Amino acid sequence: MADWTSKDIPSLTGRVAVVTGTGGLGLATAQDLARAGARVIVAGRSAAKGAAAVAQIMAAAPTADVRFEVLDLGNLASVAAFAQRIVAQESRLDILVNNAGIMTPPKRLATSDGFEVQFGTNHLGHFALTAGLLPRLRKTAGARVISLSSIVARGGKLNFTDMNWERSYNAMQAYGQSKLACLMFALELQRRSVADGWGISSIAAHPGIARTDLINNGMGAASAGGLVRKYMAFLFQPVAMGALPILYAATAPQAQAGGYYGPNKLSEMRGYPTAAKIPPQAQVLADAARLWDISAQMTKVNFA
To answer: Could you confirm whether 260 is annotated as catalytic?
Structure first.
């Protein structure tokens, strides 16, 4: 996969993709999928940001077939409503990119359902979304679910005794847990797809360190991370490069079901897509099954 770029994306004409997130990596991913011919549904909380994303994609690819749909991953009722609309409107779903996320708010915040906001949005919201869209994914030959993790998952741990960080809160540890959970979900989804004959390819990806607004929206522009983002921008690769592992996982014929992809240079911080190293804690099958069961209980969704 030497120096794979968006120019290597095969034709996606006739295929349907859902991408969560209206800016940054989500926008870059949606734009390249649309440019390759897919009908793309961009999903996010803000109608204004959604309209701006659609306008930007149309400006870059005037023939793009793209629309925005409201989706709040921090609200399970919104997730269920979104999934119901897509199942009703679309006869197929080829690509689901579970991308949208929240990173390290200084104070503990909760979703509308009472979950710690990073775990609730980054993992639980996408867990419930995937379950809701399963009917269309299962009916689409070659369907792929791409779940976005992070290099922070390397140091992540599942806090099974306090998944919602109600006893004490550490922003980075909570973020690491959420992104480790995203990776473990992707791997477990593939195992269950094989075991139950769902016919879905589940693949994980991470962008390395990309120049998005994730830090500013979470820690804040005046935080230590925000200042590094501002004054040491050379450490961050362009968003378009960060999106490449996601696009590779979503479209490349050679991408492996159950695989994990990230950048190929500087300890996976930047570069072109390559197979990423899966942290040992993400490979503990008992923990993955336990996380799945807890997630199903918390979200009250059923993949069966």
So the answer is: no
